[in-house]
């Protein structure tokens, strides 16, 4: 049960003049006060501007203001200072003074500094500003070597204007947007990975490099294309710096090859691929897949017919151009295994028909002396495809 003392009653009733007098006369906060009750006491003093009482308690050693002594910020006076402080000049002046007089304010508590804790707690930007002015340093890195910009970008469920204000403030304080963490990610990598579209422009404006690889060799473009299939983010990045589609990651893949491998072929994917082709992506470029080179076209032919249709229209490719094995696009389409699925067989038929309409020559043979029809003839589900190939040969 909470023991009522003259000091506690004076504070709870906001009679701060009396509370100050009691402290001067030796009155103390009762020992063993539950952390919940102590937090309520701090919140009352802070929200009602009992700043003189707080300073008196700190001067008397009744409030722990040495950060090194804390086990958690949540159980300290700093939590309500960050969360409950009135947002006016008088309160900010008190905060600067109080924190400025505290000890070891840049020490870590539970893996974070006071300033990092304030960001994590989503303090108002003006509170953050006061903490920095009081001497809280902005060069802190956590155990993952994320700098404060990276830490802020990782915070979820935060109002976008506040998160943007945090990033802008840290940039103004000299925190490097291109500083990398333990896995060589920059803030831009993290922003793309975590769908923080609202932060991308400001990072780019202050020098973020979208072609910079992380430890796995993946760039922000790679994240945007192969992980997110996000046209909006891609256009933000490419509007600042053209994508280098030839950059290989540690697995030997490029942003384009991985996008093509993973894309499902819906309208959004097709629109994004069309933009990539307009920006210089080359479907003839090949990367290893199970130790064999695989070009963009090799992926395209396995996607829905609409993907191939767009690629043919956009690139104007010579449909009869053979690869190193002598296979044309028609050969490759006819070699696809429908795997006992009628829908896949129908897609093969539609693609073969489209290629024939585009000028594909069904009489061409590959290095094994096989025509496209020979590759289709081995599967009964491809019988309709064989029919149109035979008809085309007779023309």
Automatic annotation (TrEMBL):
Statement: the UniProt record of this protein carries the keyword Flavoprotein: no
SMART domains, per the entry: ANK (SM00248)
InterPro entries noted in UniProt: Ankyrin_rpt, Ankyrin_rpt-contain_sf, Multifunctional_regulatory
PROSITE patterns in alphabetical order: ANK_REP_REGION, ANK_REPEAT
Listed Gene3D superfamilies: Ankyrin repeat-containing domain (1.25.40.20)
Renumbered ranges of ANK repeats: 183-215
Keywords: ANK repeat, Repeat
Name of the protein in question: Ankyrin repeat domain-containing protein
